[in-house]
Amino acid sequence: MVSRAESERREAKRQAKQLRRQGRREQWERDDQRTRSRQRVRAAGIGVLGLVSVTVVVAGLWFAFFQPRPGRSVGTSGAGVHTGQPSEGYSTTPPTSGPHLPQAPPWGVQDEISEPLQVHALEHGGVLVQYNCPESCAVLVSRLNSIGTRYESKVIVAPYSKMTALIALTSWGKIDLLDEFDVGRVEKFIEKNRNHAPESFVP
User: Fold this and answer.
1) pLDDT in tens, the chain (203 residues)
2) Distance CA 3, CA 162 (A)
3) pTM surpassing 0.70?
4) With contact defined as beta carbons under 8 Å apart, do 157 and 108 qualify?
5) DSSP 35-98
6) Cβ pair 152, 161 in contact under 8 A
């Protein structure tokens, strides 16, 4: 026969064991809850990061393809028309499109370049940086030539005496006239307007 003291000892031992089981169960539940919380936070973080990434990509594409390019837009004509200079002249000075010679000019710094050759360069996605300063302008010419020589292709720097502006920036269907040298404006026009023409694939 089990004594009362032994019975109470066994009961206390049983209750202690039960409490330990309950404590472990509660600890498991707390651990599981913390794990699920971390997973939810991680999933939310991944979702936010994905949304930010998509937003950045979309914004980049918009700026690359839909943001208006610098310069005044001009209606174009004469793509692929190799007939020299139009009888009634070009629509802008310097020209931004129109008939042109069949041969294309070399890229880089030029002493002079005719209008039909200018247009062919533009048709190939080139940008022309032209200047007109009857008086001495060695510093300006040096600065423009320095910009032009940074590019292996698709940029021509040359004088042009028919305009009243100091500097003219042209690409196919775009023109920007400057009365003073602005390096940022020149560089931006070149970067944003190169290779935007009917035959930009031509080297």
Assistant:
1) 667 776 767 766 776 677 677 767 777 777 778 877 788 878 777 876 666 555 555 444 444 555 689 999 999 888 878 887 887 789 999 999 999 989 889 999 999 999 999 999 999 999 999 999 877 789 999 999 999 999 999 999 999 999 999 999 999 999 999 999 999 999 999 999 999 999 999 88
2) 123
3) no
4) yes
5) HHHHHHHHHHHHHHHHHHHHHHHHHHHHHHHTSPPSSEE-----TT--S-S-TT--SSSS-SSS
6) no
